[in-house]
Design a protein that fits this description.
Elements (H helix, E strand, L loop, with lengths): L7 H13 L4 H9 L16 H26 L3 E12 H7 L5 E8 L4 E6 L1 H11 L15 H14 L2 H5 L7 E8 L13 E11 L2 E10 H4 L8 H25 L5 E4 L7 H5 L17 E5 L2 E11 L2 E9 L9
Antiparallel strand pairs: 1-5, 2-3, 2-4, 3-6, 5-6, 7-8, 8-9, 9-10
């Protein structure tokens, strides 16, 4: 098992202790050989692997790019959003970390169970609101005094923004985000139990000259059904399937350009070989179908359609009437 990596200051301190005689090399070696026990806090249960956290980070990096494009178009000003961190912590700790008065949006992501939280720093939220209302993007701190109009504008803006999550999550799940609640006081918002593990994706956000954070809180219960989709193995299989489908698409395009013989069968007749050998130019053959009945259209020798014979200008032609199904040579 690999040991902990020491910083340069810790290395210098150890070398200094050995050189001055405060600690001997044997004592240090003995400490390394002793079994070290790490304290495990059950309130901070790690329910996601590092690999899964990395996958969530990649997904929300794409989400951050989509949000940047959306808000840049909506606000018509400089907007930059990027992933700052992705951590798993208890829900109680997340609630304690956000300001007492902030912008909290609650989303359902059907068909998954549970709800997501999106916490927007008030400075960022008010800068966005000011731009939407025609201002220069100035921020303010009056979350507790939000009017009904301001609440409606903000909720509509963040509801539209969260639609981008559907595209960002497309590789792991097909979801339909819906805004269900809008709050300004996190103490009034109890989505899950305090000790439930959540993943918090922190986004660095710059709107004009205002900067702040947007936090996306995803409970474990929401991700539990699709956790296997967050593994590297799943991503590799997905990429393989996509490349395979690309090959099939190319093959399909080539097949579509292949030439096929099309023939219209007016009818058939039975005769003896002796009669066949005596046929001459001008002889009339009686077919087994009426003149007003549709003819069979063969594609590559296989009967596929019924058609009505007719004339196109000075040429003979047929008009497709119906599709033939159920034949032995039929693919369907």
């Amino acid at each position: 098992m690999a040991g902990d990596i020491l910083s340069q200051n810790e290395i210098d301190a150890l070398l200094s202790a050995i050189s001055t005689g405060e600690r001997s090399a044997d004592e240090i070696r003995k400490e390394e050989q002793e079994k070290k026990v790490k304290v495990y806090d059950f309130k901070r249960a790690l329910r996601f692997s590092k690999d899964q956290i990395r996958s969530l980070t990649r997904i929300h990096e794409n989400f951050a790019r989509l949000l940047t494009t959306f808000f840049s178009a909506q606000l018509r000003t400089f907007v930059q959003i990027s992933v700052a961190s992705a951590d798993q912590i208890p829900y109680e700790e997340f609630i304690r970390s956000v300001p007492k008065m902030t912008i909290l949006n609650v989303y359902e992501v059907a068909p998954l169970d549970g709800k997501l939280l999106m916490e927007i720093n008030p400075n960022i939220a008010y800068a966005m609101l000011d731009r939407v209302l025609g201002g220069r993007g100035a921020s303010a701190s009056k979350v507790e005094n939000l009017t009904e109009i301001e609440t409606k504008i903000m909720s509509n803006m963040f509801e539209q923004a969260f639609d981008s999550l559907r595209e960002a999550w497309a590789t792991i799940a097909d979801i339909d985000p819906i805004l269900t609640d809008f709050e300004v006081n996190p103490q009034f918002l109890q989505v899950i139990s305090p000790n439930e593990t959540v993943v918090v994706i922190t986004l660095n956000t710059i709107v004009g000259e205002t900067s702040g954070m947007i936090n996306i809180c995803i409970p474990h219960v929401v991700l539990e059904p699709i956790i296997p989709n967050l593994s590297v193995k799943y991503w590799m299989q997905t990429n393989k399937k996509e490349s395979k489908s690309e090959e099939l698409l190319q093959l399909e395009k080539r097949v579509e350009k292949a030439d096929l013989t099309i023939s219209a069968e007016l009818g058939s007749s039975m005769m003896a070989i002796e009669e066949f050998l005596l046929l001459e130019v001008g002889d009339v053959l009686e077919l087994n179908c009426r003149y007003d009945e549709p003819v069979t259209l063969r594609i590559g020798g296989v009967p596929k359609f019924t058609a009505q014979p007719g004339q196109i200008g000075k040429k003979l032609g047929v008009q497709v009437i119906d599709e033939l199904k159920g034949g032995e040579d039929d693919d369907e």
